[in-house]
Design goal:
With about 475 residues, the chain is mainly alpha-helical. It has helices at about 5-10, 15-25, 30, 35-60, 60-80, 90-105, 110, 115-130, 140-165, 170-195, 200-215, 230-245, 255-275, 280-295, 295-315, 325-330, 335-355, 365-370, 385-420, 425-440, 455-470, and strands at about 215, 220. The chain is about 75% helix and about 0% strand. It has a two-stranded antiparallel ribbon.
């Protein structure tokens, strides 16, 4: 455990400034000497890393934003830089650095903020996931160690550091700005992919097998710098609703106009992804936002518009000349071959899972299943859904716990939203909670809620909703 005097010294402003000056002095060594280019780059890289860590120690909330940005750009690094570097470990590194910095700078009142059902539910799910290592089905421990990261470890740590780091309503505003900026960058990169071509890393991704699911009938399913088109489309739908709901808030006119424009841009991003499941993220999030508004007229009018939009897609062929609209329309076709394959896979699983109430173990299905549990039947079945994946790994017992926990969080979040007095804060929380609901239900069709950046955005959104009552007493000048 850290000595208290050391903690005070390392986090003191004078110490930070002294270390900062030392690092800056070291950074000029490559310029002032004749060391090789590689050595110069290495020294500068180390100096920048130290500067980043010093900034994080001085103001730990910076670490959360480092993490947030890294999660948006994770697959950009993987594709464009490549190599044998395990970029995913950067998430663990940033989580632990942020957590340590927050421990050094936190007090009893900071830890009191973590005492919520959100934290306890995440901890309970982490404990259940740890216990899955002794699942009698005998899944690989290596597969378990890979899967538990996104399934339970990341959500718990993200929620914990979120409660410790965020202390005022302006933190929520900063969070919204950061996620909107990087989501917009993702949209612009997607537009570039579709209309101007792919980078060398993006083309390599298609050449190495990505084209099977991302080039259909000669048309590119845009994936931007995310893991795949499914994550990109769902995330764009998420942010489309997030921006649209905020555009209805009582903010300055130019902010509302900007938010409405962003919503339209994100809608286009969703369409060019060719992700049919994203439609359900959009519809569920929109309906949940209407429900949270508790305005009967708005609820009825909004529901009518949603029904009309679904009817337009379901019962007309208008716009079929546009591939993106045609592709989206197939999401409502019950005879779609892809949909029927998913149902067939679920039927195969249902018969097998009868004897596995606690599932086959973490990492037994999906990508980790193929790599670490190739000898297991479950590894041969494509989950095509995070709900199905949870069912296969944790069994009906685990799935029921997970599903019930998520529904509780949405219900508890709704109760919090309805009690908020500040109208601007309430509309922000309606937008955040609606986005979580959309991603959660969209995950029935794709692995979305367990993949970056949706994983970190949804969990931090829940943190802000649970922190909202403490923000409600603050003056809001947004």
């Amino acid at each position: 455990m850290f000595n208290q005097s050391f903690i005070s010294w390392i986090t003191d402003r004078k110490t930070i400034i002294l270390l900062l000056v030392s690092v800056l002095a070291l950074s000029v060594v490559p310029v002032a000497t004749s060391v090789s280019l590689l050595a110069s780059v290495a020294i500068l890289g180390i100096c920048l890393a130290v500067l980043a860590i010093l900034a994080l120690l001085y103001k730990p909330i910076i670490g959360v934003y480092y993490l947030l940005v890294f999660c948006f750009l994770l697959f950009f690094f993987t594709r464009e830089i490549g190599g044998d570097i395990p970029y995913g470990l950067g998430i663990e590194a940033l989580l632990m650095l942020s957590f340590v910095a927050l421990i050094l700078r936190s007090n009893a009142s900071d830890w009191q903020r973590t005492n919520t059902m959100l934290t306890w539910l995440m901890l309970a799910w982490l404990v259940i996931s740890v216990l899955e290592v002794v699942n009698p089905a005998g899944a690989s421990i290596r597969g378990w160690s890979q899967e538990i990261r996104s399934a339970a470890l990341y959500p718990f740590l993200i929620v914990l550091i979120g409660f410790l780091a965020f202390r005022k309503s302006t933190d929520l505003d900063t969070f919204l700005i950061v996620v909107f900026v990087f989501s917009l960058l993702a949209t612009l990169n997607g537009i570039k992919q579709l209309h101007f071509g792919l980078s060398s890393g993006e083309q390599r991704f298609l050449d190495e097998g990505g084209a099977i699911t991302h080039v259909l009938f000669g048309k590119l399913r845009v994936f931007s710098f995310y893991s795949d088109a499914g994550q990109f489309g769902a995330s764009q739908a998420h942010f489309c609703v997030l921006a649209a709901v905020l555009a209805l808030g009582k903010f300055k006119w130019w902010k509302r106009l900007l938010l409405a424009s962003l919503s339209a841009i994100f809608l286009y991003g969703m369409l060019i992804s060719g992700t049919r499941g994203a439609l359900f993220a959009l519809l569920v999030a929109a309906f949940f936002a209407l429900f949270l508004s508790k305005n009967i007229k708005v609820l009825l009018l909004g529901s009518l518009l949603v029904v009309m939009a679904v009817g337009f897609l379901k019962y007309t062929t208008i716009g079929n000349g546009n591939y993106e609209i045609y592709r989206l329309r197939t999401a409502l076709n019950p005879d779609d071959p892809s949909l029927n394959v998913r149902f067939e896979n679920q039927q195969r699983l249902r018969a097998f899972m009868v004897s596995l109430p606690f599932g086959g173990g973490l990492g037994v299905i999906g990508a980790n299943g193929k790599e670490y549990n190739a000898d297991k039947f479950l590894s041969s079945v494509e989950p095509d859904s995070y709900w199905v994946k949870v069912w296969a790994m944790y069994g009906i017992v685990g799935f029921t716990i997970w599903f019930s926990g998520m529904m509780y969080l949405l219900g508890r979040g709704a109760a919090i939203v309805w009690r908020l007095q500040d109208e601007r804060l309430r509309i922000k929380c309606i937008a955040l909670l609606s986005g979580v609901a959309g991603i959660f239900f969209c995950s029935y069709g794709n692995e979305v809620i367990n993949t970056m950046p949706s994983l970190i955005v949804t969990n931090l959104s829940l943190v802000f909703v649970f922190l909202a009552p403490s923000f409600d007493k603050e003056p809001n000048t947004a």
